[in-house]
Amino acid sequence: MSALLNATAQTLAGSHFTFQMTDYIVFTFMLSISAGIGVYFGFFAKGDDTTEEYLMGGKRMKTLPIAISLVASQLSAISIMTIPSEMFAFGMNWYFAVLIMVLIVPVLNYVIIPVFYNNDITNCYEYLELRFNSATRKLQTFWFVINIFLMLPIFIFLPALAFAQVTGFNVHIINTIVCSICIFYTMIGGIKAVVWTDVVQAGIMVFSVVLVGFLGARRLGGLGEVWRIAGEGGRLDVNFTFDLTTRITMWNAAASGFVSWTSYVGLHQSCVQRIVALPSLGHARRAIVLFGIGFLLIMSFNCFTGIVMYARYHDCDPLAVGLVSKLDKMVPYFVQDIMGHLTGMPGVFISCVFSAALSTLSASINSLGGIVYFDYIKPHIHHTEHKANVIMKIFVFLAGIYCIFGGIIVEKFSSILQMVFSIGGIGFGSVCGVFLLGMLVPRVHGRAALAASALSIVCMAIIMVGSWGRNQYPAMPISTDNCPTTLNATTTASTLLNLNATVTVKDLPTSGFSIFDISFNWYAAIGFVLTLVSGTVLSYVLSPAADQVKLNPNLLSPAIKYFVEYEQAPMYELPELRKEKQQQS
Questions:
Q1: CA end-to-end span of the chain, whole Å?
Q2: 3-state secondary structure 103-158
Q3: Which regions of 469-526 does DSSP assign to beta strands (E)?
Q4: CB–CB of 65/195 below 8 Å?
Q5: What are the helix and strand counts (H, E) for the chain?
Q6: Nearest CA to 90 among 508, 505, 477, 479?
Q7: Which of 16, 104, 512, 525 is the most exposed place for a label (fewest CB within 10 A)?
C-alpha cells in the first residue's frame, strides 16, 4: 500500500497534464464522424422535405438505435463529469437515483407511452390540450422552453471545461468550436443525424466509462481494495435519515430520481419525439426496456468510477492541496492520472465527454425547434412544410449561438450538479404531476390542472430562489496525510498550511427549520406531490369548463381504464386540426 501512496503523491506533485498529438487526432476524428453523419443525412440520404421527416424520421426509425440514443442522452456530460464527483465527495447515496429506473421502465411502458400511441400524439404537450385545455399546454411548453434554455449552455460547457483542464486551451474557444459542429449536423441532418450520431457517440462513452473504472480499480490493487478503502472512508454508507435538509439520502435520491427520470424520458419532448418515431407501441416498449438495461449498466459504471476516484485520493485530496480548483474538474484530473500514460486514452475520454454533451445538446435543440415552431410560430403564419423546416433550422442555429455565450455564465457556478437538480426541480415535479393527473385521475379537469401546475412551479421557484447561496453542503472528509511536502507551482501558500491535516468542515449553525433549507434533491418530488394533491383537491372545488364535462377514454392510461367509471365523449380535436379539416372539405 505504501508504494501506491508514493505513486499518488508523485502524481500530485510532479505531473503536468497535457494532450499529445495522438489525443488530438482521436478527438478530431470523433468530431469528424459526427459532422460526417450530418452531411450524409443532410445531403445524400435526404427524405421528404416535411416536418415529420425532419423531427421523427418519417416514423420509420429502428428499435435498437432509438434505445441507444435514449441512453446516450441520459448519459450527458453532466452525468460523466459530476456524478463520479458526487460519489467522491458525498458517498454512494446518489446511486439510488439510478436504481429507481427499475420502477420507471414499467411506468413508462404501461402507464404513459401507450396514451401517446393510442391518440397518435407526436408532440407530448398536445396531450395536455386534448385532456385539459390550451392554457395548460401553453404553461408546460413555456416551462419546457425556459428549462431547455437554462440547461443548453450547461450541456456543452462541461466538456469544454474538461478539455481546458487537460490542454490549457481557453474554455470559451473550445465551446465555440464544438457548438458549431453540433449546430451543423443537427441543423442539416434532423432527427436521423441526431439518433445515428448518438449511436456512434454511445459506443465511445461506454468504452471510456468502463475503461476508466477498470484501470482505476486495477491501479489500486483490485475491486476488493477499492471497496475496503471506500468502506473505511464512509463512501459506501447508506443514509436512511428522513431529513428534508440533508443534502443526499436514500429517500430523496430515489424520490427525485423517479420524478426526474420519468419526466425526462417519458414526458420530455426531446425523448418522446424519438420514442414515437418508432412505428408501433410494441417497438416503443422494447426500446424502453433496452434503454433501461443500458441505463443501469452504464450509470452503474459511472458511479463506480467515483468510488474508485475516492479510493485513489483518500489520503491526498487534490482539491485540498489546490491541484484541482473545483469539484467538477476532478474527473478529467483522475483520467489523466490513471490513463495519461496510455497513448490516445486521454483523447478517447475527452471524446467521450464531448460525445455525451453533443448527444444531449443535439436532441434538445432539435426538439426545441419543433416545439417553438408548432406552438409559437405556426399559429401566426401561413404554414408549408418547406417553410417550417427552414424556420426550425434557423432556430437550431440561433440556439447554438446562445449556447456559446451562455457558457460565460455557467463558468461561475460552484456546483453544476446542484444547479441542474435545482433548475430541474422547479418544473419536473409539475410536468410529471400534471401528466399523471390527466392519465390516472379522470375527475381532474382543465381548470384544476392549470392551477395545480402553476402553483407547483411558483412554489418551487420561490424555494429555489430563497435558498440561493444559503445552503452550503460540506463534503465528507478526505485526508491529506500522505501528500508530499513539495507540490507543484500551482499550489498556493495557504494550501501548504493545510498539509498533513484532515480536511474538516463545521456544520452551519442551526436556527430552526426553514423551508429554504430543504435539500435541492427534494425539489422534484415536492413539486410532484404538490401538483397531484392540489390538482385532485381543486377538481372538487372548481367547476369544469363546458367542454370538460365529458371525458374521452382514450386519454386515460390503459392501467386504470377498467377500474374507473366515466362518461364517454367524442374525441376532442385541437383547433388547428379542426381548421385544417374544414379547409380540406
A1: 82
A2: HHHHHHHHHHHHHHHHCCCCCHHHHHHHHCCHHHHHHHHHHHHHHHHHHHHHHHHH
A3: none
A4: yes
A5: 23, 0
A6: 477
A7: 512
Radius of gyration of the chain (CA): 25
**pLDDT tens across the length of the chain (585 residues):** 434 434 444 443 344 446 678 888 887 887 788 777 777 776 666 655 566 666 555 566 788 888 888 887 777 767 777 888 888 888 899 999 999 999 999 999 999 999 998 888 888 888 999 899 889 999 988 888 888 877 777 777 767 776 776 677 777 787 788 788 777 777 776 667 777 777 877 787 788 888 888 888 998 888 899 999 989 888 888 889 888 888 889 999 999 899 989 998 889 888 888 888 888 889 999 999 999 999 999 899 899 999 999 999 888 888 888 787 777 778 878 887 887 777 777 778 777 777 777 777 777 787 788 888 888 888 888 878 778 878 888 888 888 788 877 777 766 655 555 566 566 667 888 999 999 999 999 889 889 999 999 999 999 888 888 877 666 677 777 777 777 765 543 444 434 334 343 333 444 445 567 888 888 888 889 999 999 999 999 999 988 876 665 678 888 998 887 776 654 444 444 445 445 544 554
Question: Which residue type does 59 have?
Answer: K
83 near 212, Cβ under 8 Å?
no
Q: Name the pTM for this structure.
A: 0.80
Task: Say how far apart CA 11 and CA 16 lie, in whole Å.
Answer: 9
| d(C-alpha 41, C-alpha 44), whole Å | 6
Q: What is the DSSP string of 3-72?
A: HHHHHHHHHHHH------HHHHHHHHHHHHHHHHHHHIIIIIS---SSHHHHHHGGG---HHHHHHHHHH
Give the integer Cα–Cα distance in Å for 439 and 544.
17
User: Residue 9: which region, alpha, beta or left (left: phi > 0; alpha: psi -120 to 50)?
Assistant: alpha
DSSP at 378: G
- Quote the distance between the C-alpha of residue 380 and its chain's center: 32
Residue 426 CA, distance from chain mean position: 14
Which residues, 6+ apart, have CB-to-CB distance to 478 below 8 Å?
A: 233, 310, 313, 314, 317, 319, 320, 502, 503
Q: What letter would DSSP give residue 379?
A: G
